[in-house]
Design the sequence.
């Protein structure tokens, strides 16, 4: 079941939604940056340096969250993004590693 | 260099273009069907049974061709589609196999 913030359960993660989320240069950059971090790393949404407005950035993170690629968690006043690496690897083995060639 | 029909050279194949091409259920179905065939198989564009008009089908095959996912070749009166499996595997190892889970 998708939670109140739009995170789908692992078995609900849909390949077309994931591919759609990745098929944008800025969202792909976010996922690649998270892949380059250590597993489980949490990054502030502003830390990726996306050259867009706050509302556009929020849109991109919403698409990533609703596709199942990232988990967003609130830490005090900050909203952090974490790659759902194990979930994506279990659903589509090899997909994430193909993005960092 | 991209040829007159819009096939990019292997080194010009772009990940975002490939992901964009795959991020559509019908185009993804075409690629999965080609993956299920033997390597090098040529399929007529009508053989995938896409539930769309001829012009929409042509559009989908154009997107696939221009992304580098497929090669289209004319055989007499027929236009055949072939997956560029080796080219995609060399550019983005693991990407195609992640689509057939």
Sequence:
């Amino acid at each position: 079941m998708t939670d109140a913030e739009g995170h789908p359960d692992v078995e609900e993660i849909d390949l077309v939604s994931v591919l759609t989320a990745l098929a944008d240069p800025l969202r792909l950059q976010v996922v690649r940056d998270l892949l380059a971090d250590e597993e489980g790393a949490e990054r502030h949404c502003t830390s990726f340096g996306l050259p867009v407005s706050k509302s556009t950035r929020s849109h991109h993170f919403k698409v990533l969250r609703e596709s199942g690629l990232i988990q967003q968690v609130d830490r005090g006043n900050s909203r952090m993004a974490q790659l759902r690496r194990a979930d994506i690897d279990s659903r589509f083995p090899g997909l994430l590693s193909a993005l960092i060639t």
Notes: The radius of gyration of chain B is 13 Å.
